[in-house]
Amino acid sequence: MIKIIQLLAMEITPLSPQEILQLRAETKGTTERIHFNNAGSSLPPDVVVETVISYLQEEATHGGYETEDKYAKEMEHTYDLIAKLINANRDEVAVMENASMAWGLAFNGIVFNAGDEIITSEMEYLSNLMGFINVQKTRGVKLMVIPTDEQGNFSMQALENAISPRTKLIAITHIASTAGTIIPVVEIGKIARKHQILYLVDACQSVGQLPVDVKEIGCDMLAVTGRKYLRAPRGTGFLYVRKEVQDKLKLILMDGFTAEWVTEDDYEIRNDCRRFELTEKNRAVFLGLSKAVEYILNIGVQRTWPRIQQLATSMRGQLEGIEGVTVHDKGDQQCGIITFSVRGMDSATVKSKMAENRINVSIGKAKSTLIYMNRYQLSSVVRASVHYYNTEEEIDAMCRVLINIMMTLACIA
Ligand SMILES: Cc1ncc(COP(=O)(O)O)c(C=O)c1O
Known about the structure:
The protein folds into two domains: 2-43 and 300-408, Aspartate Aminotransferase, domain 1 (Alpha-Beta Complex), CATH 3.90.1150; 49-298, Aspartate Aminotransferase, domain 2 (3-Layer(aba) Sandwich), CATH 3.40.640. Helix content is 42%, strand content 16%. It is built from 16 helices and 15 strands. The chain has helices at 2-9, 17-25, 46-62, 64-70, 72-86, 99-107, 126-139, 156-162, 185-194, 214-217, 243-246, 283-299, 301-320, 347-356, 370-375, 392-408, and strands spanning 34-35, 93-96, 117-121, 142-146, 167-173, 198-202, 221-225, 237-241, 259-263, 266-269, 325-327, 337-342, 359-360, 362-365, 380-385. A seven-stranded mixed beta sheet has the order 2-8-7-6-5-3-4, with helices on both faces. The protein starts with a helix and ends in a 5-residue tail after the last helix. Bound molecules: pyridoxal-5'-phosphate.
């Protein structure tokens, strides 16, 4: 209710049925199958695919460096587009090949000492948890995990209680990969600022799905992937590091792009976030990322987010109505990721039977968010993730197919 009132106050025009048809017409993949694996990798708009292919073709015929020169302005503009999307400044953005690289460069850039403490949530992503364990083992850092409460909400009180003079970092995954819950990153940011603690956000599943504003969140670092809700090509992502924090992070990798020689025995590090990039990159997908960001900016994520919520609510409602299906998503704030189990059928079977019917869903494995999945004794869940280009008809079709599968396999009494 509060959300609807907020939207009215901001006068957000919902996507019209004609626009949705148009957006689907601009996405070839929507004609091929029903794609509910947007949390894995969403269908890119045609313009993104065409950009990548034609760039590669130009490289092949004109030369890699020559093509780079030709598209220098478009490449440069990518930083403006990303900055606009997350409300950052262009010198606070580095383009990366994935979110793990972005997160890892930020996290491993922090100088941890024995006894330092990291606070995270039980929804934290696999590779981030490995990063914490690594510094636990190698530098004697202590990890504190904030559990969610009975309703599945992140406990702000538990966070306040966990903070000590040794807290060096609060690291939070905004949306977990195996649950529909949204972690309140803005409220957490207020606490991080109050105590002047470094704040690192994994926004891999949220950027492109819902409005993400780094100034509102108050984070120091934010890691994003391209292929999920941003609809960019695989092998893309970006890192945001607040200007004031850039000099506090040590560089893990360096080349002639990250720093300039000043004398034979000294160099000067770039004065922007691109110090975390290297010279060589896949420029075709870089431009594909650029197009994808431009695409969502043109539509407006404030307009696509209510549609994702509406589709997700509808899918959860329908699934909950099917005898033998359990929806696992918890918490007051939920997103476009819907996780569920089917009685008597493992997730892999549901996925493969859906695929036989040209419906893409995925499996949320325990290892992806180990602490959360262990707490709720889930070894795996079926993950159906909706994007704004999905439709109610596709949800109906998926649920019909699911019921048929269950009946065929005699899961319904
Ligand atoms: C929440 C979350 N963080 C990080 C990642 C890692 O992203 P990437 O594969 O781009 O490194 C994923 C990928 O599934 C994710 O879901």
